[in-house]
Every structure is written in C-alpha cells, then in structure tokens.
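User: I'm new to structure prediction. If I give you an amino acid sequence, what do you actually give back? Let's try with this one:
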Amino acid sequence: MAKLYFNYSTMNAGKSTLLLQASYNYIERGMQTYLLTADFDDRGGTAQIASRIGIGAEADVYSQTDDLYAKIEARLKSGPCACVLVDEAQWMTKDQVWQLARAVDDLRVPIMCYGLRVDFRGELFPGSAALLALADEMREVRTICHCGKKATMVIRVGEDGKALREGAQIEVGGNDRYVSLCRIHWREAVGDR
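Assistant: Good question. You get back a string of structure tokens that encode the predicted 3D arrangement of the chain. For your 193 residues, that looks like this:
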C-alpha cells in the first residue's frame, strides 16, 4: 500500500543524503524513482539534489505554482516508477502537499518527502505544516547542537555572525548562513522568547 512519508529535521542532518540513498536502493534493485526538488534551490546545480558529503543526482524541479499531481501522473505515464522522492519539501504549498496525498491515494505510488520542520524564527513552513497534518508516516532525522544535545531549531546568521530574527522565510543557504541548535541554545542566540 502506498503511503506519504515526511522525513524532517533541521539543517545539516543528512536529509538529502538519505533521499539519495533511498533512490539508490530502488535503482540497485532494478526499479526507477522520480526525484523532485524546488526550482530555486540551485546549491548543487540546476535540477540537482546534492548532499554535503559529495553525492548527488539529477532531479525534476517544481515551482510553487506547479501541480505536483499532474507532474507525477505524467511521469508514471512515461514508464514504471516505484517511488517519488521530494527534496526541500518545506517549500511546497499546502495545496501541493494535498496534491501529493492525492497521488499516493489515487495513483498508488509511495512518496517520500524530506525537509525542514521549522524556519529560523521557530515557525513551521507551510509545506511542513501540511505534511505534519497529512503524512501517513513521519520520521525525524536527528542531528546535534554544538553542546551535544539533539538539535531541533536553526538560526540564520547575518554577515556579523549574529542570529537574525527577521527576514524572508525562504532564503537558500548552507553552513555559511544556518546553524542547527537545541532549543536552549536557539533561545540564547535569538534572545529569550
């Protein structure tokens, strides 16, 4: 039975690595996968899912206006596909998450989403909120704070190295802009809430 999965974490936990590993496992067994990532995330190159450890794969891209059900349906019509894997799932809209849920239910294809749970302000991304509500299964991908505790939050740092409290929710960046922290150290960095 097909399911909608949400694998979530903070920055630098290895979500893209896990996605690429899952895809590899399918391909190694002679099955095809369909990889999707946000069109404006070009850190690994255009139409690429890349991991910090140096592995990557080509992917189809989606924008926030794309109908993901239609994209998946078209891919399935072009040939067999055992699984759909979506990177940067936090950047989907609520409607797009519903489109994925419909694809799981109606097209009977498993869909594994990988993304952030919260932004640098400690607020849910729209795509993550919808996935938390609709996913059949959720898995936390763990990473650690500099103190050794589980990191559940992330800060965005400015040019001065200090945590920013305001700004656009979506801003692509890596280790140079984001730091994963436990809640205590996040509160310390942004000023106690």
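You can read the tokens as a compact description of the fold. Here is one thing that stands out. The two ends are 43 Å apart (CA to CA).
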